[in-house]
Design a protein that fits this description.
With 522 residues, the protein is mostly helical. It contains 21 helices and no strands. The radius of gyration is 25 Å and the shape is globular.
Length: 522
């Protein structure tokens, strides 16, 4: 999240230097981003979650107000700086990222990770994302850039062999991550590149046939996930089945507040109450804090208003892509890379988490496509002479002022969680249980810190401090199943245990908990 905030702040430095482009769909762009921001603000006000969760989200997800607001700013600024030359720089950046990520992922796979990152996935390469699924998606984006470069840029044999080997290495790493979404994303991106390459030579009838074929394949696959249609066997695959359960739970969660959602990162508190009966029967101990579908995540977070605003932006982007495909030449050729990676991002979002490291690519690419220059577009003419110099000077002073404000905003946003985390770490290192109990609830509260700290107090037999902490914790997080489990353990055999049992049954109605059925941490 720090990177995302910093990137947004830097963009403010240039915000006034670029005139808004004359884009045919600009009204949809500004309406979509405006509606997105409006929805976030209303959800922020209506949500009953702690203030810290509203601002930052939960640890590991971090999909709070600040993050989702920055996404919209990234798109608007990317739209303003987009050019054909900039698109080629993006390609080079993606390939350069791969030159670091691919060797590093290979070292992880072969057991030579010099960074000693915690890897719980049996040496599957996690890259810098801590998860092989996320790593496989980023690798697929790099693979798409390799495929595009092979088709358009690699002229001599050494270059072709280099990028072919680069692409093969990426395919190998995606394979050893055992993550289907990486190949799914790579395949779709390469198909878009192929279509972009030949679409100018296709007749209107063949373009229509391609569209129909694509839609049939997409909906056949989607129905197959629900064990329907000619690909019904897909629904029998465990990884697919569990995602269906997550999706259904996410839709149910959003339905609790259909217009403005249940709040930032609120899905995890609702999963047990919303999971379908089949999910409980299949594996009652399997839980999650995210629906594994970015569109359903947005619905659960901010309801219909938020997800509709996102689809408005996608609609505006598709409209711009259609306009780009009506032209030809090197400019359109460069745009095909942005389009292919963006479509791959949207496709993998059907089965993936809205992880920040992935999400920023989607929002930046959307802005670059929306602002991409088209031959028949009229750009705002720059002023000349002294008037131009005066305007530039005023814009520079305003930009510097905005940049300073942005840096201050970053400091005010990042300083509190950094300070509270350092205090918590210091209490653990000193072995001081009183300081530890005090540091658990420093603002901004962190649910993971509270859970971990209470467990430390219990393990060190500081029962009274743990009891005092858990009573305060369930007041702040009344829908946290894990905390109520801990509450029951600490107050077992007392009148307070009945309260814990009542709350546990409320949060997971399908498991009947009583004093003779002690719960275990899930």
């Amino acid at each position: 999240m720090t990177f995302l905030l910093f990137f947004t702040a830097i963009s403010f430095l240039y915000f006034e230097r670029f005139h808004p482009k004359d884009i045919s769909s600009s009204k949809w762009i500004y309406f979509g981003t405006g509606l997105w921001i409006f929805s976030l603000c209303v959800t922020f006000v209506l949500s009953a979650d702690p203030l810290s969760q509203k601002i930052y989200g939960t640890q590991g997800r971090n999909q709070g107000f600040v993050t989702l607001l920055c996404f919209a700013f990234l798109t608007l600024q990317s739209m303003r700086v987009s050019t054909a030359e900039f698109a080629d720089k993006v390609r080079k950046v993606i390939l350069a990222v791969g030159l670091v990520l691919v060797p590093y992922s290979c070292l992880q796979y072969f057991g030579y990770d010099f960074s000693n990152l915690a890897n719980i996935y049996n040496q599957m390469p996690i890259g810098t994302f801590g998860n092989p699924n996320f790593n496989s998606v980023i690798l697929s984006f790099i693979g798409i850039a390799c495929a595009w470069t092979l088709l358009y840029q690699a002229r001599d044999l050494p270059s072709k062999l280099f990028f072919l080997g680069y692409l093969i290495s990426i395919c190998f790493l995606i394979y050893v991550t055992k993550s289907a979404q990486g190949f799914w994303s790579l395949a779709i991106g390469c198909l878009v590149i192929f279509y972009s390459h030949i679409q100018a030579r296709l007749s209107l009838r063949l373009k229509g046939l391609t569209l129909v074929t694509t839609l049939v394949a997409f909906f056949s696959t989607l129905l197959g996930m629900f064990s329907l249609g000619p690909m019904s066997q897909l629904g029998e695959i465990g990884a697919v089945r569990v995602r269906i359960y997550y999706w259904l739970s996410g839709i149910c969660t959003g339905n609790q507040s259909p217009f403005f959602g249940v709040g930032f990162d609120g899905y995890g508190d609702w999963y047990r109450r919303c999971r379908p009966e089949q999910a409980f029967l299949w594996d009652p101990n399997r839980v999650t804090d995210v629906s594994h579908n970015i569109y359903i995540d947005y619905y659960a977070t901010g309801g219909l208003i938020l997800v509709i605003s996102f689809f408005i932006l996608i609609f505006a982007t598709i409209k711009q892509i259609t306009s780009i495909y009506k032209t030809s030449g090197d400019s359109t050729k460069n745009a095909s890379l942005l389009i292919s990676v963006f479509v791959a991002f949207l496709a993998q979002g059907i089965i993936s988490i809205n992880q920040i490291g992935l999400a920023i690519w989607g929002w930046i690419l959307m802005g670059l496509i929306l602002g991409y220059p088209i031959e028949n577009q009229v750009q705002n003419a720059p002023k000349t002479g002294r008037a131009k110099s005066s305007v530039v000077t005023q814009q520079n002073s305003k930009s510097i002022f905005k940049f300073i404000l942005a840096i201050l905003a970053i400091g005010l946003t990042l300083l509190p969680p950094t300070n509270s985390s350092e205090k918590f770490k210091s209490a653990i290192e000193q072995g001081n249980p009183i300081e530890l109990e005090s540091s658990l609830f420093d603002w901004p509260e962190d649910r993971a810190r509270v859970r971990f700290g209470i467990q430390i107090l219990m393990n060190s037999e500081q029962v009274e401090l743990a009891k005092r902490a858990i009573v305060k914790a369930v007041e702040i997080y009344p829908d946290d199943y894990f905390l109520w489990q801990t509450y029951q353990k600490l107050f077992m055999g007392t009148d307070r245990e009945d309260k814990a049992i009542f709350e546990l049954n409320r949060l997971d109605p399908r498991i009947e908990i009583n004093k003779n059925n002690s719960t275990e941490s899930k």
